Amino acid sequence: MSSPVIRHAAATSLALAIPMAASMTVAAPAHAQTITPDSVIVTATRSPQLQRDVLSDIVTLGAEEIARSGAGSITDLLQRQRGIEISRNGGPGTNSSVFLRGANANQTVVLVDGVRIGSLSSGTASWSGIPLQAIDRVEIVYGPMSSLYGADAIGGVIQIFTKKGAGPQTVSASLGAGSDKTRKFDASIFGATAEDNSFSYALSAGKEKSDGFSATKPGSTSYNADDDGYDRVSTSGQFGFQVAKGHDLGLVFLNSRTDGQFDSGASRYDTRSQTKLSNIGVFSKNQLAANWHSTVQVAKAEDTSVSDTGVASAYSRIESKQTDATWQNDIRIGEDTLQVLFGHREEEVVSGTTPALGKVRKTDSYAGAYSLKRGAHLATFGLRADDSSQYGTKTTGSAGYGYRFSNALRASASYATSFRAPTFNELYYPGFGYENNKPEQGRNAEAGLHYDDGVTEFGASIYRNKLTDMLVTTTPCPDPARKGSCAYNVNHAMLEGVSLSASRRLGAFTVAGNADWQDPKDETTGKSLARRAKKHGNASVEYASGAVAAGAELQVSGNRFDDAANARRLGGYSLLNLYATWQFTRDWSVLARWNNVTDKNYEVARNYATPGAKFFAALRYGIK
């Protein structure tokens, strides 16, 4: 179902805020589960909404949980969440794929402050270029979201929110070191003017460096025993200005450069990849009437990815450029909300090494959504049309219903359609792309039950997502005018499963766990989709009292196959992680984390190495 790996430029990225009200409740730094009934969720409806009114299946991660994780990368953090699996070609600085509910990596939309990121050539996000220290919050929404976000939202949406300024000036910093000579430093300053909060600001900077470990293992044709490290520097910031009551302007930026090493055989040449993300955006929020809120966003993003193996013919440089403009209107009608959206997106690839990818695609979008509340009854409806210069017009829709049996217990059901646009590789890559390829399509039905009384939380979802016109590599190409293989719309797939989660506070202890039983299958071949297990889950227990918190986490995954033919099996694995934090003064704390305590040898991609037992410790100032 997946196209072959083609080295490409990764993610065009942009940090442009869908602004969140300064008074909104941020999910508490929960010890295992960060969602509370009074938390505000943005991604599920594109506007702030109390968690108790959200019908979608969601997970949120707060700033403290991210800081406490000691994760080496955002993919390490995501791997510990339910419904998510990852594949990575080595350590934190190498290419990674994230699979949401069994969907392909290019079937999930990834947003940074409201604007999607992703390579235009491969359709996947450049996870290695996203700095953890800039992240304030992560929201994960499971299930099709094309009626709100357009192309590629088949498996779900992952949105990353960077740090924002509010309240008195706050300074925070962190200095850490660990295994593989890993060292990290970051600092942030954020706040707002004391008089009226009319000006807000947030600035963050960070540097990470690690000697890493060998990206490949013996048996790989690319094997080289040398260590493959990475070096990342990043800056990010947001500025907001209140022109008048109900009228705000803002600017946001994110810059990141990651130099990573990878293996390309026994050559002594220092093979490297480099990813640069440089983004800037502006927004205007306006209260046009008592019940009418307007948000206009304009963003410019540039991404440059370079791969250098020392062989001139294999050198690759690809630039992805995106311009996004969106006008979103939220109109309150009693307790209901009508949302009307207009958008324009322009995608361009520039590549001197692969000129055939040098194309431009433009898309105009028109969407409407309605959220309804009638006592215990909740409902949502959405309809969207995306008119593309390349694939024509695609219309998607969604409908959801929920019933609150009590303030703590809610049931829901939904149906939605979705699609994924062909990537530039699938359209234009020499010897692989086919210009007549059309979008993949999905139809999903699901039902869920959620309980949360502030002490005990339980969630269950069952889903069935039918995919058609799947783009796969087929030989020979069905087009008689073509020779050899090509990407072509020939397969069907089914993503179905059950996802469970639960947590409970027992005095100073919090116990939590989640489990996924899924069957992501290519129905045309009858084979399981590559690198996705039928069973995976997580469990944790944490003790928190006063200034001290300590906990243990267990990650478990069943067998998977490394290839579409299901000829190469990847064994299951379980990983044990331990951590502890100590707030020894009001502003100072220390963190220690020991990942993969048993030094488990496992694979998420055949012949690519994964981290063994790793230790990390950090001294933190001012991080709450």
Give a nutshell description of this structure.
Pfam families: Plug, TonB_dep_Rec_b-barrel. The protein is mainly beta and 624 residues long.
Mind explaining what this structure looks like?
By secondary structure, this protein is mainly beta. It has a domain at 40-166 and 232-537: TonB-dependent receptor, beta-barrel domain (Maltoporin, Chain A, Beta Barrel). It is built from four helices and 35 strands. It has a 22-stranded antiparallel β-barrel. Strand 6 (108-112) and strand 7 form a beta hairpin. Mean pLDDT is 89; it is low at 1-35.
Tell me how many strands there are.
Answer: 35
Number of helical segments with 4 or more residues: 4
Proportion of strand residues: over 45%
CA-CA gap between termini: 44 Å
Radius of gyration, whole Å:
23 Å
The helicity comes to: under 10%
CATH topology of the domain at 40-166 and 232-537: Maltoporin, Chain A
Task: Provide key terms for this protein.
Beta-barrel_TonB_sf, five-stranded mixed sheet, 4 helices, disordered N terminus, 22-stranded antiparallel beta barrel, mainly beta, 624 residues, Maltoporin, Chain A
Summarize the SSE layout with pairings:
Layout: E1 40-41, E2 49-50, E3 57-61, H1 63-69, H2 74-79, E4 84-88, E5 96-100, E6 108-112, E7 115-117, E8 135-142, H3 146-149, E9 156-162, E10 170-178, E11 182-192, E12 199-213, E13 228-244, E14 247-261, E15 272-289, E16 292-308, E17 316-333, E18 336-350, E19 360-374, E20 377-388, E21 392-404, E22 409-420, H4 424-428, E23 440-452, E24 456-474, E25 486-506, E26 509-518, E27 521-522, E28 527-528, E29 535-545, E30 548-557, E31 560-561, E32 569-570, E33 573-582, E34 588-595, E35 614-621
Parallel strand pairs: 6-9
Antiparallel strand pairs: 1-2, 3-8, 4-5, 6-7, 8-9, 10-11, 10-35, 11-12, 12-13, 13-14, 14-15, 15-16, 16-17, 17-18, 18-19, 19-20, 20-21, 21-22, 22-23, 23-24, 24-25, 25-26, 25-27, 26-29, 27-28, 29-30, 30-33, 31-32, 33-34, 34-35
